[in-house]
Specification:
alpha/beta, Rossmann fold, 2 domains, six-stranded mixed β-sheet, four-stranded parallel β-sheet, about 40% helix, binds alpha-D-ribofuranose
Amino acid sequence: GMTIKATKTLGVLVPDITNPFFSQFSQGIEEVASRAGFIPLIYNVGTQDTQSTNYLQELVRRTVDGFIIAAPNVGLDIIHQYLDQNKVPYLLMDQSASDNGDRIIAGDFEGGQKATQYLLDHHHRKVAVILPRQHSNNIDKRLKGYQKAMINAGITVDSDWLIEHELTKKGGYEAAAEVIESGVSAVFAINDEMAIGLYRGLQERGKRVPEDISVIGYDNIEWCQYVQPQLTTIEQPIIELGRVATGLLLNRLKTPDAKPQTIKMATKLVERASVIDYQ
Ligand code: RIB
């Protein structure tokens, strides 16, 4: 039989509940968890490390059965101290821990490459990427995908084309000045939230998307269909990521000694109206 503890709760830590990515992700978690009789406790840990440490400590004390940690700012040292040492199972998204746990590979490298290649295919050569200063593992892979595509096209990436701001709409908004300054004709925004913020920043500075600057995003949150122009982006199977993460964690709770599993997910390009050919 099952040897799991009786609380039947899962702790879920996300970095930003205002980002619809994490609402959809949580929806996937909730679906699979509730079907198995578990209740997910979802926490917005923000970007403060102390806050996430408190949540972890407190949830472990209250004997949460397992964790899904999708907040890359929850440090591996803290995870080791509170989870590994107390033998609490967990699944990490967006950062790779010890290589011996269950893992989801979300195709970030290919996704970054695909986004950039799409801009190159539209004859853009000066392509900026807007991304956060702190590169979590997934963001770093998207960046590597961008670099790979640029190298393959024989383009040397100018350091002014890597534009760092926070991973929010505000960050994207603030990137607009540097984007214009850099003289690029296209931008790969590392997530849709940044792309949407960038839209406004560009617009306020009299630049039109896509006539003056083409923009591609990443995630395919629902907003992409409601902004003007509709945002071309790289789709992640967001709800499915939540489902799969939960499935892996629940399996781990049932059979703690099973061989670690790695599940690969794929991204896909969603063409809309924010990218046009460079003339
Ligand atoms: O939009 C937020 C980002 O956080 C997503 O791209 C997702 O991969 C997560 O890392």
